[in-house]
Amino acid sequence: MESNIADKAVPAAPGGPPPDWLGRQWWGLRRNLVAKIATLPMVFTALVVFLGGTLWSIFYSFTKSKSLPVEKFVGFAQYERLFNTKRWIVSLENIAIFGICSLVFSLVIGFLLAALLDQKIRFENTFRTIFLYPFALSFIITGLVWQWILNPEFGIQQVVRSFGFEEFVFNPLRDPEIVIYGVLIAGLWQGSGLVMVLMLAGLRGIEEDIWKAARVDGIPAWKTYLIIVIPMMRPVFVTTLVLIAAGIVKVFDLVVAQTAGGPGIASEVPAKYVYDYLFARGNLGQGLAASTVMLLSVLVVLIPWMYLEFGSRRQQKHG
Known about the structure:
This protein is mainly α.
């Protein structure tokens, strides 16, 4: 009697998937159907606008298109011309300097500010608002503000000289050798607050027992941060790096507002190069070739990161 009962098929729980394979597949498709339908516009936009626009840009980067797209193929001529143009080479050098310095200094400044605020200081909310406020401004406003601050006639240089230091010189926006660092100062001023907030959220997620155990063991605070806390904040650092990298690739309006790419072409960046050739010079093929190179540079960084991030999770799940 007991064996006969055990041999019988167990019915599915109310609201759960049916026991047969075909029924389970249909139940899986039907589940959250409204949510899946709601994502269709986003999927359509991603496929048609982003993917379609990307393929269109790559296609016409191999043509001799000027003001309007034409299907007159010239092979890699646009790319050869691109890498033989001094303006493009200078823009690549500038974005490399700006990018490396932004990644390093944004993380260091943001983490130090977050560590200070994490000490439960007085007026924490006020300081947090002050540090984060620049991020609420547009890059155009930031560029104009720092253009005035760095102006040698009434900016930092003039203020310091008014205290008697007549030989003091600080004029980065008019010096072709260091102009990109003047742009970097404005970028750090605006972006470090966001990094601080992200890092502070990560620090607040560290359990208090870890800090107590470190203090009991006599581990100095700096070593606790370096050996214990920072490795535990890996997801926060990854998210922050992705956000910073996205801002670096598309830096455009900050340069336009501060220097307009000058003096000469000393502060040129790839996004401004693409914009000028697409709209100002009416050279569609050259502009699309430059934008395709920018896309490839992003993929070179993004694909290995995605493989390491999601591939390791999959191996841990199946391992």
